[in-house]
């Protein structure tokens, strides 16, 4: 199995399945859940800390390509910035000319007011036009910034939807959310604030150089003395500081994951009195983020003062040599010196702009790296080429010599063989970690096999398109996933084309119609997140209704009654019996009382089948199943 199909080292190898969907009963993954139904915090945290910064040039180039999608607005922005820059460059020249209208004649200042009025009028017009172009520039920058955010978020969301369950299990969901929100927002801020200023700075650099050379070549060469020193200092500081900005973004993603985990598991945290430990763990991550953020800001702030010092040094050199030439040679006027001083400031502007915005630029690039890391993850593989519709599948299933492990050196299934005929009800039982849920993960191709074959109607499932395979399967999970929408929409989730009659029939079949009709708004009742305004049993009945409306050929019931009381279990059992009628059903059961009527019971131990038969046959054998059964009911009696 390729690396992309495995969770990171250290992920739990078995347990509850990822709550992804099979077929039309598609359900979203539970937040932060790994393949074993445990949070992926530990391994993910270790993985984050070991990551190294990637190539800044490559990231910048890719970011430019994303920004370039708004090419017409980008062209308009570049033209507008060019206009603003050119107008701005004429300012010092006009100011120098205005100063030179003042002459010293017989120890008296004489002003050529006519020339000064004309120059001041030109300056007023120039500044007015420049202000108009600057306003237009801000509008275009905002447009490009939001278009970039829109494109990146859409691309990232679409990419995540194409990842394999194995790949998403390898990331803390809070970290994925942080990339979708914080990282993209940081890119947006940098785009809106930095593109215009940096591009304008580059134009200003060459424009200022042109005007300085026109004024005095020697003074211009003097101004160049500080450039190599500026480049050297900025390069060294940039290399030193960048790691802190990358680490800051990683820790922020980890912090978001911790908050999400705490909120979702709050009842468990309180029930076990783990608030102090949770607060302490959050504090440790938050403290790490605080220290890294301080370092990134402190070291990021060093760049500005260093560049300002070098800029001021250049300013002093230009002033000194300008005055020297004016006094000794008379080749420069006071207006020329004033213009040269302003152009020297503009001359240093590109480096100063990068220095002053270095923190936001590095934060944005670090965020862009994290986004592109997900974008570069290979999509879920689907090599299926058979042209078969889901409705054409009958439901015969065969597992041949199945070998699989979530971690290569820890196999879960070791040569498993199992045959299931159309319409059969097969119960799979065994101790925790025996591989029950793994069978489901492999049948739905949430994970890829290490060895062996799985056939559906004598077709290798790797040759079936995944959509066809999953459209023929519906899953009812132990932890029901409902969305913050109406009950009608949640049932229709199993089949978007379902009619109102279909929805009501599904609810009736699932024994959910009575409690729905008692609700104030009936089928239009809006559920809270996760359906928390319903009981566990009611949520489970809605999940069954969703599976009914999907009309699958293969049904998987994964511990579907383990979270409810005995009375509710009876109602759910009745609903499941109606759902399983004429369908191939795989029942993963913890409560053995719920599978007495199964056509065949398969007992797993250590990744292989050790017993199979119906309930009575297995009790007579007095083997593994009999021990599980007796232990369970002995526990109940006790």
Give an account of the 3D structure:
- This protein has 638 residues and is of the alpha/beta class.
- Helices cover 60% and strands 10% of the residues.
- It has 22 helices and twelve strands.
- It has helices spanning 41-50, 56-67, 71-99, 113-162, 165-169, 173-215, 217-223, 226-264, 266-271, 275-328, 334-347, 349-356, 358-375, 436-443, 466-471, 487-492, 500-509, 513-518, 536-550, 566-580, 615-621, 624-637, and strands at 102-105, 108-111, 397-404, 413-420, 425-430, 451-456, 459-460, 473-476, 554-558, 584-588, 600-605, 608-613.
- The strands form three sheets. The protein has a six-stranded mixed sheet, sandwiched between helices.
- The two termini are 46 Å apart.
- The relative contact order is 0.11.
- Residues 1-53 have low confidence and may be disordered.
Low-confidence stretches: 1-53
| Largest pleated sheet | 6 strands, mixed
* Overall average pLDDT: 78
Number of helices: 22
Major sheet strand order: 8-9-10-5-11-12
Helical fraction equals 55-70%
Task: Tell me what portion of residues adopts beta-strand conformation.
Answer: 5-15%
Q: Globular, elongated, flat, extended or rod-shaped: what is the shape?
A: elongated
Could you tell me how far the N terminus lies from the C terminus, measured between alpha carbons in angstroms? 46 Å
Radius of gyration: 35 Å
């Amino acid at each position: 199995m390729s690396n992309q199909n495995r969770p990171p080292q250290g992920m739990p190898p078995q347990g509850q399945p990822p709550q992804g969907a099979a077929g039309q009963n598609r359900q979203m993954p539970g937040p932060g859940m790994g393949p074993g139904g445990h949070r992926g915090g530990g391994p993910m945290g270790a993985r984050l800390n070991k990551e190294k910064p990637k190539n800044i040039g490559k990231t910048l180039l890719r970011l430019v390509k994303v920004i370039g999608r708004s090419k017409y607005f980008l062209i308009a922005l570049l033209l507008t910035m060019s206009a603003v820059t050119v107008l701005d460059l004429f300012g010092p020249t006009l100011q120098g000319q205005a100063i030179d209208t003042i002459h010293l004649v017989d120890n008296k200042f004489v002003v050529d007011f006519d020339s000064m009025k004309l120059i001041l009028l030109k300056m007023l017009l120039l500044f007015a036009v420049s202000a108009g172009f600057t306003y237009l520039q801000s509008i275009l920058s905002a447009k490009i910034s939001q278009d970039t955010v829109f494109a990146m978020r859409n691309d990232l969301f679409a990419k995540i939807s194409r990842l394999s369950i194995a790949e998403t299990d390898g990331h803390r969901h809070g970290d994925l959310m942080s990339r979708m929100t914080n990282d993209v927002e940081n890119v947006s801020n940098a785009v809106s604030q930095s593109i215009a200023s940096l591009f304008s700075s580059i134009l200003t650099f060459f424009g200022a150089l042109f005007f300085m050379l026109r004024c005095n070549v020697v003074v211009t060469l003097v101004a160049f003395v500080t450039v190599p020193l500026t480049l050297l200092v900025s390069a060294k500081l940039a290399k030193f500081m960048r790691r802190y900005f990358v680490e800051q973004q990683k820790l922020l993603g980890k912090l978001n994951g911790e908050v999400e985990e705490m909120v979702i598991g709050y009842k468990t945290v309180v029930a076990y009195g783990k608030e102090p430990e949770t607060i302490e763990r959050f504090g440790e991550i938050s403290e790490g983020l605080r220290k890294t953020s301080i370092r990134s800001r402190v070291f990021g702030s060093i760049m500005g003062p260093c560049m300002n010092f070098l800029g001021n040094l250049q300013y002093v050199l230009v002033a000194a040599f300008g005055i020297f030439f004016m006094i000794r040679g008379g080749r420069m006027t006071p207006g020329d010196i004033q213009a040269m001083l302003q152009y020297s400031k503009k001359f240093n502007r590109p480096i100063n702009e990068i220095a002053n915005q270095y923190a936001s630029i590095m934060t944005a690039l670090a965020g862009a790296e994290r986004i592109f890391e997900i974008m570069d993850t290979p999509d879920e593989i689907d090599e299926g080429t058979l042209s078969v519709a889901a409705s054409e599948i009958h439901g015969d299933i065969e597992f041949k010599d199945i070998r699989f492990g979530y971690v290569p050196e820890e196999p879960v299934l070791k040569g498993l063989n199992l045959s299931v005929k159309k319409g059969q009800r097969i119960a799979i039982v065994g101790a925790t970690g025996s591989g029950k849920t793994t069978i489901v993960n492999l049948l739905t191709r949430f994970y890829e096999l290490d060895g062996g074959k799985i056939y559906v109607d004598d077709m290798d499932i790797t040759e079936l398109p995944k959509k066809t395979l999953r459209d023929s399967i519906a899953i009812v999970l132990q932890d029901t996933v409902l969305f913050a929408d109406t009950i009608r929409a949640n049932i229709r989730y199993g089949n978007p084309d379902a009619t109102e009659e279909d929805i009501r029939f599904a609810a009736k079949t699932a024994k959910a119609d009575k409690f729905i009709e008692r609700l104030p708004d009936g089928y239009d009742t809006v559920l809270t997140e996760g359906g928390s305004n319903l009981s566990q049993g009611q949520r489970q009945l809605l999940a069954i209704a969703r599976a009914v409306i999907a009309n699958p050929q293969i049904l998987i019931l994964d511990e579907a009654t383990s979270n409810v009381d005995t009375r509710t279990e009876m109602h759910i059992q009745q609903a499941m019996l109606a759902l399983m009628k004429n369908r191939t059903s795989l029942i993963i059961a913890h409560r053995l009382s719920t599978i007495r009527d199964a056509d065949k019971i398969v007992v797993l131990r250590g990744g292989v089948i050790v017993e199979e038969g119906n309930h009575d046959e297995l009790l007579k054998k007095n083997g593994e199943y009999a021990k599980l059964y007796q232990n369970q009911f002995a526990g109940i009696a006790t």
